[in-house]
């Protein structure tokens, strides 16, 4: 032993007073775009929002009867953070193009999954509105809700753009 302590890198603790909660998919292709979009266009830096990154984002909240366990997990996480942080004023829901979770749900549920919808994109946008409505109603929330659809901006699928979906 030479008595010298190895230098350890230290990391900052952020404030812990988030302004928003964001539910988006865990798809690695979209993570950088989500973070940059939130910072650049919604003025939310890391630490200023609670990120809930789960496969399919709000997909599990749209089929409680088909996927009750997934529904419970996502709903519990959302409720927990809303209860714990009164500073959260905005809930942001993001769905995205080419979501593997949506593909999996379509395979699992068969024809009924796209009943009343022309395609997955239409269903994904409708789901954002449906879940947003349910969140507001269930908790009688006085929170602002913002809904976005992230989609590829070019045919090579190397760029992503965000479209706001009205409530
Ligand atoms: Zn996805």
Question: Roughly how many Å is the radius of gyration?
Answer: 18 Å
The CATH architecture classification is 3-Layer(aba) Sandwich
Total helices: the number is 5
- The level-1 CATH class: Alpha Beta
Global outline:
globular
Protein structure class? alpha/beta
Ions, cofactors, ligands: which are bound?
zinc ion
- In order across it, which strands form the biggest sheet? 2-1-3-4-5
Strand content: 15-25%
Describe the largest sheet: 5 strands, mixed
Low-confidence stretches: none
Give the integer mean of the pLDDT values: 92
Helix content: 25-40%
The arrangement of helices and strands along the chain is EHEHHEHHEE
Span between termini: 64 Å
Q: Domains counted in the coordinates: how many?
A: 1
- Reported by name, the CATH topology is Beta-carbonic Anhydrase, Chain A
Report what the structure shows:
The protein is α/β, with parallel strands linked by helices and 167 residues long. It has a single domain, classed as Beta-carbonic Anhydrase, Chain A (3-Layer(aba) Sandwich), CATH 3.40.1050. Helix content is 38%, strand content 19%. It has helices spanning 31-42, 59-62, 68-84, 100-109, 120-139; strands at 20-24, 49-53, 90-96, 144-152, 160-165. It has a five-stranded mixed β-sheet with strand order 2-1-3-4-5, sandwiched between helices. Helix 1 links the parallel strand 1 (20-24) and strand 2. Bound molecules: zinc ion. Zinc ion is lined by residues 25, 27, 56, 96, 99-101.
What descriptors fit this protein?
alpha/beta, binds zinc ion, 167 residues, 5 strands
């Amino acid at each position: 032993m030479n008595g010298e302590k190895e230098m350890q890198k230290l990391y900052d603790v952020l404030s812990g007073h988030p302004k928003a909660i964001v539910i988006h998919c865990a798809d690695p292709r979209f993570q950088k775009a989500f973070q940059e979009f939130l910072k650049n266009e919604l003025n939310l830096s890391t630490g200023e929002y609670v990120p809930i990154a789960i496969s399919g984002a709000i997909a599990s909240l749209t089929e409680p009867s088909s996927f009750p366990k997934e529904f419970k997990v996502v709903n519990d996480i959302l409720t927990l953070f809303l209860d714990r942080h009164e500073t959260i004023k905005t809930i942001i829901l993001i769905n995205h193009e080419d979501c593997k979770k949506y593909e999996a749900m379509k395979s699992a549920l068969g024809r009924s999954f796209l009943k009343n919808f022309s395609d997955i994109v239409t269903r994904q946008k409708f789901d954002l509105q449906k879940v947003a409505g349910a969140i507001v109603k269930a908790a009688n929330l006085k929170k602002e809700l913002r809904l976005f659809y992230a989609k590829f901006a070019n045919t090579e699928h190397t760029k992503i753009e965000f479209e706001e979906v009205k409530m």
